[in-house]
Amino acid sequence: MTLILSEMQIKLLRAEVEKSFPVEACALLFGEHKEDVVTVDKVIVASNILESTTRFEVDPTFVAFAFEQAEKEGLDFIGLFHSHPAPATPSAIDVRYMKLWGSAVWLILSTLDGEIAAFRKLDDQTERVEIEIK
């Protein structure tokens, strides 16, 4: 699977990480699924209601509203973004919650080195997703 993002979206996410630091930043990703390619058309930055440096949670009411808006715009849910004060790989907590989100992409940015990586849960396996920036 390939995840396509624009340079502008990456800049937006990096800016949000800088603004939120040391609290984990988070966002919802919406766009279009086409076979084995997902394209992000809309990034909705969200507040981390835990205000934690090691975990994130988005207000469920905000998530519901974002999903309603995306549906009105004809956009699919692509996945979640968050920052990590560690390498850009899913933590044990991430892996546990990934199971709840089906095949959604989890985009992670490391605040240690700026690396960005994407993953999804598929058949109880955590799979790396290729990122293409346009």
Please tell me about this protein's structure.
- It is a single chain.
- With 134 residues, the chain is α/β, with parallel strands linked by helices.
- The protein has a single domain, classed as Cytidine Deaminase, domain 2 (3-Layer(aba) Sandwich), CATH 3.40.140.
- Helices cover 25% and strands 40% of the residues.
- The protein contains three helices and seven strands, in the order E-H-E-E-H-E-H-E-E-E.
- The protein has a seven-stranded mixed beta barrel with strand order 1-3-2-4-5-6-7.
- Strand 6 (116-122) and strand 7 (125-133) form a beta hairpin.
- The longest helix has 14 residues, at 7-20.
- It is globular, with a radius of gyration of 14 Å.
- The relative contact order is 0.22.
- The model has no long low-confidence stretch (mean pLDDT 95).
